[in-house]
Write a structure and sequence with these properties.
Elements (H helix, E strand, L loop, with lengths): L5 E2 L6 E2 L5 E3 L2 E3 L20 E3 L2 E3 L1 H8 L16 E4 L2 E4 L18 E4 L2 E4 H9 L7 E3 L5 E3 L10 H13 L5 H11 L3 H25 L2
Helix pairs in contact: 4-5
GO molecular function: DNA-binding transcription factor activity, RNA polymerase II-specific; metal ion binding; RNA polymerase II transcription regulatory region sequence-specific DNA binding
Protein name: LIM/homeobox protein Awh isoform X3
Subcellular location: Nucleus
Length: 215
Amino acid sequence: MKTELRSCAACGDPISDRFFLEVGGCSWHAHCLRCCMCMCPLDRQQSCFIRERQVYCKADYSKNFGAKCSKCCRGISASDWVRRARELVFHLACFACDQCGRQLSTGEQFALMDDRVLCKAHYLETVEGGTTSSDEGCDGDGYHKSKTKRVRTTFTEEQLQVLQANFQIDSNPDGQDLERIASVTGLSKRVTQVWFQNSRARQKKHIHAGKNKNF
């Protein structure tokens, strides 16, 4: 009795090869199984992904359908530290006030307005039309007190991308690396150093907060 050959899901030709691939309930010639985006061969890859009958490599699937940071729009990998605000997800270093650029710490109050993250001071300024938080503040009794005005560093999305990428590689760079990163971002070495110090502190708080929830 003649055995009916399977048809390849990609080219449609019968599969007479001794070895073939089964993916998503379909059969494929080994050389026909390729990513629909970059066309890289997938027959020797450990995994591939199917969506709406299209086959993707891991990188292209993550790029098109994986979680993305709501600030920098870059992909979020499984190893990244993230912060969530409702349905939005942010890289830890990208979770900053949209008005002043200050990164927000674990447990700090913030607000979402039109998917923009605002620190408490700038949220109140926006809804109440008050003065900037760098000029005035409130003490524990609710009375206004003057504060020394200080200049805040505002980071661009491109600078945050460079800082975040380097933080993932080394969260505590040495002086030479700080100078290199400062040169790439256009920031001063001191500002770059402080950013890394603050990010390490936030990461430490984030880890401790997660551990405390388990007790």
